[in-house]
Design goal:
- It is a single chain.
- It is built from ten helices and eight strands.
- The protein has 317 residues and is of the alpha/beta class.
- It folds into two domains: 3-226 and 301-311, Spore Coat Polysaccharide Biosynthesis Protein SpsA, Chain A; 231-293.
- Helix 2 links the parallel strand 2 and strand 3 (61-66).
- The structure holds uridine-5'-diphosphate (UDP) and magnesium ion.
- The site of magnesium ion has 5 residues, from loops.
């Protein structure tokens, strides 16, 4: 299998048929052996019905159906895990990504990259609710991680199999795939891709997503930089805090002993005590972190989704 196209879908019944038709008309001329993996993320509309009907006519269309809505990240993760292709392309199921960009992504990959990410330009989304928050989030992510991209939110990507199989995704981390892959040593590139307005159905996200992205960014930053050495970050904060508290305490003690100052009511005393206690706590937390860092990776070996049905004659369910 040369190519797997993974599409997460949640209540996209009207968008599926045109999209799949479009993808096929782009891929067929390439002469590659490919499969389409549609992951139905617990849709409550006719999505599964449409997919199973399309699957009847086209066995290369494989369908994974979740038991409930697990979220886009889980849907992408399930698709990546199931994919058999040497190269895996991920894209949105609402038709906002243009399948005609797939050959360009593949070409760029051939230049020697492991992951090529799309950059939606110009972006066809509302300004205040979408493009502005997305600008801010992109700036933050690019500042905090080592991968400098313009558009982390673009689902359209091409990823080499080894890299895709190596990803562990949680929360809403599909947008950190490039950052996570980079940490594993992948070479990353970005190319401009088309973006289209949504034709049917509604966007599944609101403004609340911005906050979740920022929190996820913290997790990713922490995991990428300190997961294997938590004491380095917690310990550093703890030492600085403890040292500051100690200095203030020394200053107060000198005043008390040599100048007979009354330090009992001074706010500085409270601060010194606080800083010393916090310092101890941070160091201890870092040590606990070190213990977790030794058990965490192995204990996490379970998927973040539950599959209900699989339509694919090739593999036993
Ligand atoms: N999606 C999903 N599960 C969810 C939410 C979204 O599989 O819980 C899919 C959705 O069907 C679409 C893609 O993820 O194919 C992107 O979602 P959407 O278009 O709503 O995001 P936007 O383009 O507004 O950022
Ligand atoms: Mg969309």
């Amino acid at each position: 299998m040369d190519l797997s196209v993974v599409v997460p879908v949640y209540n996209e019944e009207e968008n599926l048929e045109p999209l799949i038709h479009e993808i096929r008309s782009v891929l067929d001329p390439l002469g590659k052996r490919y499969e389409l993996i549609l992951v139905d993320d617990g849709s409550t509309d006719g999505t599964y019905g449409v997919l199973s009907r399309l699957h009847e006519a086209e066995p290369r269309l494989k369908v994974l159906r979740f038991k409930r809505n697990f979220g886009q990240t889980a849907a992408v993760a399930a698709g990546l895990a199931y994919a058999q292709g040497e190269v895996i392309v991920a894209m949105d199921g609402d038709g906002q990504n243009d399948p005609k960009d797939i050959p360009a992504l593949l070409e760029k990959l051939e230049e020697g990259f492991d992951l090529v990410s799309g950059w939606r330009s110009p972006r066809r989304d509302p300004f205040w609710s979408r493009r502005l928050p997305s600008r801010i989030a992109n700036g933050l992510i690019s500042w905090m991680t080592q991968v400098k991209l313009h558009d982390y939110g673009c689902t359209l990507k091409a990823i080499r199999r080894e890299v895709a199989k190596d990803l562990k995704l949680y929360g809403e981390m599909h947008r950190f795939i490039p950052a996570i892959a980079f940490e594993r040593g992948a070479r990353i590139a970005e190319i401009k891709v088309h973006h289209r307005p949504r034709r049917w159905g509604r966007s599944k996200y609101g403004i609340a997503r911005t906050f979740r992205v920022i929190l996820d960014l913290l997790t990713v930053k922490f995991l990428l930089s300190y997961a294997t050495r938590p004491l380095h970050i917690f310990g550093l904060v703890g030492l600085i805090s403890g040292a500051l508290g100690f200095l203030i305490a020394v200053y107060l003690t000198i005043g008390k002993i040599f100048y007979q100052l009354d330090i009992g009511g001074r706010p500085l005393l409270l601060l010194a005590v606080l800083l010393i206690v916090i310092g101890f706590q941070f160091v201890t937390m870092g040590l606990l972190g070190e213990m977790l860092a030794r058990t965490y990776p192995e204990s996490q070996d379970k998927p973040i989704y539950v599959i209900k049905e699989i339509l694919d004659e090739g593999k036993p369910a």
